[in-house]
Amino acid sequence: MPGRFLFPKLMLRLCLGLASGMLALALGSAAFAADKMLVLKTQGELFGPASIRMSPLGLRVRTKIGESLWLKSKPENFYMINPENKTYLEMTRQAYIDDLREDYPALRFERKEVKKEGSLFNKPRQITFLYRKDEGSEVKSAEVESIARDMLPADVCRVWCELITYQPEPAQLPLACKQLIKRGWMTNIMQHVDGSVKGRGHKRHHSRWMEMLTTSDLQWQNCDPSVFKLPAGYKRAVDRASLYLSTDGEIKKGDIEEFFMRELK
Fold this sequence. Notes:
Blueprint: H1 2-34, E1 36-43, E2 50-55, E3 58-63, E4 66-71, E5 77-82, E6 87-92, H2 93-100, E7 111-120, E8 123-134, E9 137-148, H3 154-164, E10 172-193, E11 196-222, E12 235-236, H4 240-245, H5 253-260
Parallel strand pairs: 6-12
Antiparallel strand pairs: 1-2, 1-11, 2-3, 3-4, 4-5, 5-6, 7-8, 8-9, 9-10, 10-11
């Protein structure tokens, strides 16, 4: 009977059609993601006023005092860029993170609590509360707000999370971070007893919440590949001093004199 073989053939064609459609959709989404970059405008202790751009090519941070660049093609490195002097400094990714967080400890916690409530930039918002032990008591040490990372590749999102020093679920993109910073210092009280001087030290602490990062604007824009390249003609600096004080990548006596506006003797 002809109909006996018709149904299997129709099913085969239907399955092939669905598979082709799903493949085309996947390829279309990948192409769309490759042509786009995520642009954030942020504030906070970590960067100050900044513009962040992320794409499958890498991540670039622009601040008032300079720029930094991470390239997917060289994942273990970071570049600090000085547009004023047209110089750049290559360093390891971990060295850049350590430098960025020099005055702020990394987020450490022993317990976390995740809540999904409200929205952020028209996306469901996830709030993660981090808790740690401090002098025998549990205290809340940080709050991280995030949304779905959408088209942003997981490895690029991971590097962004490393700068904040917190890795949420792989599908989440942190956009705000508030951290409890504890500072300590020593005070000395000098006492004169029978003509002698004695010192007595006191260790004091002070904790306060600090806005490490807040995002005021989020947009998907057409990707500009030049954003994720080292600027042409920039000189490679040999160290941090040369990055900021020289124009050819290596600091000289004249650079120091120009900076201090006086002749060295």
